[in-house]
Amino acid sequence: MTLYKKKSDLFEKINDIKGKNLIIGLVPTMGSLHKGHLSLVERSLEENDYTIVSIFINPTQFNDKKDLDSYPKNLIDDCRYLESLSSDIIIFSPDIDEIYDKNLSVKQFDFQGLDKFMEGEYRKGHFEGVATVVSHLFKIVRPNKAYFGEKDYQQLRIIQQLVIQNNIPVNVIGCKTIREYDGLALSSRNAKLDLHSRKIASKIFEAINFCRDNYKSKDLEKIINDIDIFFKNISEIELEYFIIADSETLTPVKKITKDKQYRVFIAVRIDEVRLIDNIELN
Ligand code: AMP
Question: Fewer CB near the last or first residue (10 Å), C or N of the chain?
Fold first, then answer.
């Protein structure tokens, strides 16, 4: 494992790799790595000559300062974790100025409506921040492939759109969500849950599974209503949204049409910790 903090140093390494016509896979992360991240890294190691894992808590994608300040940081453990996977991994963990050059502004994008609902609606400016930092990383790393988790499905669709619209020569690869034994999607934020909150966090997966089990036989509005009542009866969980949407356009739907793909998306707060998840329905 080699750790780079400066993009000028990384540039040299990338030039060397590119000069040899070798293939680079990029896995962008905000650190506090878990098995979900690892599944992306493992896939990149299999499919590329070099894997670069970026570890950068991107300030411009946080609309809530408290959330940013309390985001877990574990660079030393992360480096150890990656080293245990492969000694060839390159880690890029820059300071904020290295990426933003003292100008913490975001670029403007046309996401074709993919940012209109769910995270785009509840975290204003979030995707401009994500797309800005990913654009910077793509310019610095010049990867052939980049790996993103379906856990953040809306983000994955937005990056796919970003690449198409800006003719960026990167193959964006979506990877399956890795879950705990009880279905809770792995997330760096899970570490902020106390024992009790962690236990009831499994209700998130229960809710989206209920939707998957019933969307064929029940009215979607009835399902949404049932889920609303389900969470009203769990005082520790505050439901932010529960939306069934077209997997392609991410537009919420009230009816399912055959030969289209759908997913159910959820965001909740448990004890101040905001958690999101989604699964495919068909
Ligand atoms: P983050 O560090 O939360 O920004 O996540 C970095 C990447 O890991 C993103 O592409 C996420 O979608 C992905 N990721 C996070 N959690 C999981 C998970 N449980 N399973 C698969 N991928 C994940």
Answer: C
- Atom 7 (ligand 1) nearest CA: 29
The neighbour count for residue 269, using CB atoms within 10 Å, is 13
Q: What is the pLDDT of residues 172-186, one digit of tens each?
A: 999 999 999 999 999
- Can you give the pTM of this predicted structure? 0.98
Full strand arrangement of the beta sheet holding 273-280:
237-246, 262-270, 273-280
Cα distances (Å, whole numbers) of residue 94 to 9, 25, 202: 11, 18, 35
What is the C-alpha to C-alpha distance for residues 123 and 199, in angstroms, rounded to an integer? Answer: 26
> 90-92 and 273-280 as β-strands: parallel, antiparallel, unpaired?
unpaired
Note the pLDDT tens digit of each residue in 22-40.
999 999 999 999 999 999 9
Kindly give the interhelix angle for 75-85 and 35-47, rounded to the nearest 10 degrees. Answer: 40
